[in-house]
Write a structure and sequence with these properties.
The chain is an alpha+beta fold. The protein is 45% helix and 10% strand. It is globular and about 55 Å long.
Length: 309
Amino acid sequence: MTTTADILAYDLDRLRRRVLPDTAGEVDDSIPQLADADPDLCGIALVTVNGEVRVSVDADVPFSIQSAVKPFLFALALHDTDRAALGRIGIEPTGEAFDAIKLETGTGRPPNPMVNAGAIVTSSLVEGDGVDGRIARIIAGLSAFAGRTLDIDDDVARSEHLLGDRNHALAHLMRSEGTLNVEADDAIAVYASACAVLVDAEALATMGATLAAGGVNPRSGERVVSRDVARDVISVTATCGVYDGSGRWMREVGVPAKSSVSGAIVLSVPGVLGAAVVSPPLDERGTSVRGHRASDALSADLGLHVFDV
């Protein structure tokens, strides 16, 4: 069994050196700011549920959170609606890409909160008066997960809003189905801002650790969401967090995780730790190549696979 001593003794810089020579994958170019990302960036961080922190080189380099925000949007929506959001969104994996134009047959709901359609809905369900109010709530909520004040990259948010044609299509489709209760453009404005929040590997690992600790930030001591909400979020992240690669991920790595086109991966091991890896080059499923390798090594070296008896 993994102990805190094992985690604190783990050499993250050595792990970084192991995965850094892998130059496979391509940097996402869906918006200019992502296309300009440094392909050699590689940062890793661990935060235990006791609040102990370990980081590698590059763990303090900021990047936009992108799709790694989705578990936390889901958590805020569940918290703010007293978990009534569970009736507004499916929880089944799709086996399809993150931006697939697909809703549940018969209900018109998004298939799960980890694809774009689901995250557009969850970001619309958080408390707040209009677009500005919901954005302010999301910033405050994500900051509570991270244990420090986070900011939005306005240029990234603008690009996400202007260039997210498929997201606009999804919002209008859900609006026509009656599953999105705000104006489509307002929903995309909020979601674009959520994706543009700036974090680094250490902040993202703290966010993962807050879920792993049952909703309590292990560094600040603040209860951010309830244990039930944290359990719901980690469960759905395990089955849907890596999109059409989720089954393979859970077999190989065995740790609930959410990938992101910025090259970030956030992991939560219930009762043990949160972790984050960032490295921009992505595989064909939109998952960081080095991040996948580093996560696999972390799981194997520290015995984190949740199904390994």
